[in-house]
Amino acid sequence: ETESVKNIQWITGNNFTVERGQQQIEEYISTWDVHRSWLHCSEFLQEEELRYSKRYHYRVCWSVPTRRKPIPRATASIYFVIEISKIKPATLPVEVFFTLESSRLIHRPEQCQFREKWLKDIIENKIILMERL
What ranges do the domains of the chain cover? Predict the structure, then answer.
């Protein structure tokens, strides 16, 4: 069972803007196989200055609102980082990686296929936790 990893053509460092980065994240997410009941919103969080690169942090918040519960009990966040090297040529595509809320594992768009189950797991775990409290 080999799934083809869906990715997009990422922008080059010299063409990057915060807005364009957010558009590209939206474009990348549109390749994911998630049920249409999932809604999301994305936002730019911050710019981080490192010695050899600049990192732009974004958050995409997911939930499944329903008619009976328009405000979901829990949401799942995915954190994206777009990194622009200060050393490599600016004509190369930006580096992109993402992490799931509550996980340290770093995913790269070109290496992994997103799973809807990840979102479900985050939300289920939060609801279990809230019920315990």
Answer: 13-132
Rounded Cα distance between 117 and 127, Å, is 15
Give the span between the Cα atoms of 64 and 75, in whole angstroms: 8
- Which pLDDT band holds residue 3 (cuts at 50, 70, 90)? low
Question: In whole angstroms, what is the distance from residue 127 CA to residue 73 CA?
Answer: 7
Contact criterion met (CB below 8 Å) for 55 and 48: yes
Q: What's the pLDDT tens digit per position in 22-66?
A: 999 999 999 999 999 999 999 999 999 999 999 999 999 999 998
C-alpha 115/C-alpha 33 separation (Å) is 7
Q: Largest Cα–Cα distance of the chain, in whole Å?
A: 52
